[in-house]
Amino acid sequence: MPTVNPSRIDYPRILAAAPAHDYAALREFLTDELPYIWLDDYIAMLPHRHNVHRIPVEGFEYLWDMSGELVQQGVVAASAAVDDRLIAAHGLSSALTKNGPALFTKPDPATRLRRG
């Protein structure tokens, strides 16, 4: 049976660096910082090449590793690719619009999350 390693992310340290007593500033800080922290943690445990996109949908942001794109672009052989996967999601829920939420849209290359 596979084992799950505990997260290496030190959330108490991250919160200690965040603005105190101001919900809007805390939300902005976490929205700006956490995707990169999650990305670093994800990359540290990968045995394969990554292709991460930030995709906003209905007030949430999804971090997807789109390995299939690398195969389509000829960057990675199909035999070395992994399935596309959701890495993280964050956001605030809100009431549905009369048309309902969008389920998924093809990622724009500009959404690609790059470190550094």
* Shape label: globular
Give the overall average pLDDT: 83
As for the number of domains, it is: 1
Strand content: 15-25%
Q: How many helical stretches?
A: 3
Helix content: 25-40%
Q: Helices and strands: which structural class?
A: alpha+beta
Instruction: Give the tally of β-strands.
Output: 3
Question: Largest beta sheet, briefly?
Answer: 3 strands, antiparallel
Strand order in space, largest sheet: 1-2-3
The rounded distance between the terminal residues' Cα atoms is 37 Å
List segments where confidence is low: pLDDT < 50 over at least 5 consecutive residues: none
Structural Rg: 16 Å
Secondary-structure element string: HHEEHE
List the helices and strands and how they pair.
Elements: H1 11-16, H2 23-44, E1 52-57, E2 60-65, H3 67-72, E3 85-91
Antiparallel strand pairs: 1-2, 2-3
Describe this structure in words.
- With about 120 residues, the chain is of the alpha+beta class.
- It has one domain (about 10-110).
- It contains three helices and three strands; from the N terminus they run H-H-E-E-H-E.
- The chain has a three-stranded antiparallel β-sheet with strand order 1-2-3, with helices on one face.
- The longest helix is centred in the first third of the chain and has 22 residues, at about 25-45.
